[in-house]
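Two entries, shown back to back:
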Amino acid sequence: MPRDYYEVLGVGRDADEGQIKKSFRRLARELHPDQNPDNPEAEDRFKELAEAYEVLSDRDRRRLYDSYGHDGLRGGGYSPNFDGGSFSDLFSAFFGGGGFDAAFGRGRAAGADVAVGVDIDLEEAAEGASVEVSFDAPVRCHTCNGNGATPGTPIVTCERCGGQGRLQAISRTPFGQVARTIACDVCDGAGRVPEEPCTTCRGAGLVQETQTLSVDIPAGIEDGQRIRLSGRGGINSPSGPPGDLYLTVRIRPDERFVRDGDHLITVLDVPFALAALGATLSVDTLDGEHDVEIVPGTQSGEVITLREKGMPRLRGGRRGDLRVVVNPVTPRKLDRKQRELLERFSESLHDGNDAAEESMLAKLRRLVSRA
């Protein structure tokens, strides 16, 4: 059985229309799901509140409810008609367009968010860097300091709204005719307008301006990640706070390395003779050159892992690894002496020399399992 509507709204049975509306607005602010993201009951409670207001704000429905209760409403053919609607639809019905923030006079508070991109090198992503970014965003007019008036001229009461900053409007909704309050379209809710608009901003109080900002890029950031800088964006009204700046970081391709999360992969070309005989060679890392040991008989595609020579983790901890893929290189051109030596070497080979420790089929299976 639904709760008593007067109890839901927190008013007495003798409450007048103004008291019912005032209570509904207060409770709607408290119970709206946007204000209670962690409360699973908020949605049902808000719908219950809207249903109670729909009944008690309508003179005929209230009379029927006072006389016969919920059964009387159902017998009279009433049923809530907003169950399938969104909460923004409910607020539009009761308070006009603009959603929850606009309904309670907070729509002008949100600033103008700005999105920019920056390109950095892999070394900068590994070490962290400070970069300068430039972007265009609305700022308070420097000529009038945001009041929209030519310096030295007065700001007068808005004639359209009489200084209230609000206008009353009647609209037809699923609930019938609803009186709602909207911001004045002349003064934008301020209640006052410049007698002589500022020539720089044309009375808006805002101008578009290029801003340059130094931003610290943390070590370990990945390609495409965004950095949010609260309050460093633009503004939507001279008296409102600024929005946020969203910086998208793009990492330029590096010819030496391929990134795999916190790990790096590189290819080391090894002359085929050294791959067979073994050698100590140097390989590039983010920290400079590092020696690696090529064991005799190293095959194509074998991986040498250098621990903690990869990328730092964004939130700290052990660095990733550098995986060195060995690529034995066969010479394309041979002189006569080299050819003779290779022919003699080839004639000396026997079954035990070229026996692979792992069959080609096993290698393929291992590679597929890693994919």
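entry 2 starts here
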Amino acid sequence: MSLSSTLAFVTSHPLSRHRPMAAVARFAGWQLRSRLAGEIVVDWIDGAKLVVRRGMTGATGNIYCGLHEFVEMAFVLHVLRPGDLLLDIGANIGSYTVLASRLCGARTIAFEPDPGTVSALKKNIAANGLEGLARVEECALGDRNGEIQFTVGLDTVNRVAEGTDLPSRTVAVRRLDDVCRDENPALIKMDVEGFEDQVLTGAERVLAKPSLLAVQSEFGGPILIQTLSRHGFEPRYYDPFTRALSVGPVGHNLAELIFVRDSAELIGRLTSAPQRTIHGVTF
């Protein structure tokens, strides 16, 4: 992101737009700190920590704004309970894993195929004492078991490589149904940069689990929507301030659709979750 687009994002974010200059100060402070040290353990929210270095786009967004992806991350905080399971597909350095396991007490299976990113993910698990709750699967997910080419050096947008993508490396790819055969997830978070259809093709049994309340996906094409609809998931927008799900977007929404099973349990969880206050904003 350019400096102007980063500052626009930071100052308009729902958790910082009431005090935009404080957010700009956090941004400037990180720019200075990150130039003086290679890797920094940052106090995040409610006792959680993040191990961050310069250039980690999503993680630095958490530093500037509290929750980089406000709606999706707030949904995780409002839905999950101790003993639940999050499938963090495309975990990157583990921001969602930390939210789920450190703040909500849920178990997490974090899927990340890039070896360098896996190293950062494991550091965040260790920094938060989550070895008993969070498990790392060093693989990509898809519609088959085997190997696949994966890009190198693209930070949060590393992805399954196309013919023109260079450089790339060979990583393991597995079907979610085979990895999580006996697991009963409550929530799936998926950020796989356009590979969603293949992931879901290999996840038919997991999607059919009655325990699964919602699926969060950064991208939602026709095949993804059809697949999730077949398993009873409908697209909704979430407002963390009112705890309401709606068919249309709300003004502050910075997220893609969340796919939910319309159930009394889900609504009950959303409305009864404890309030959290970040940078002076309660939701």
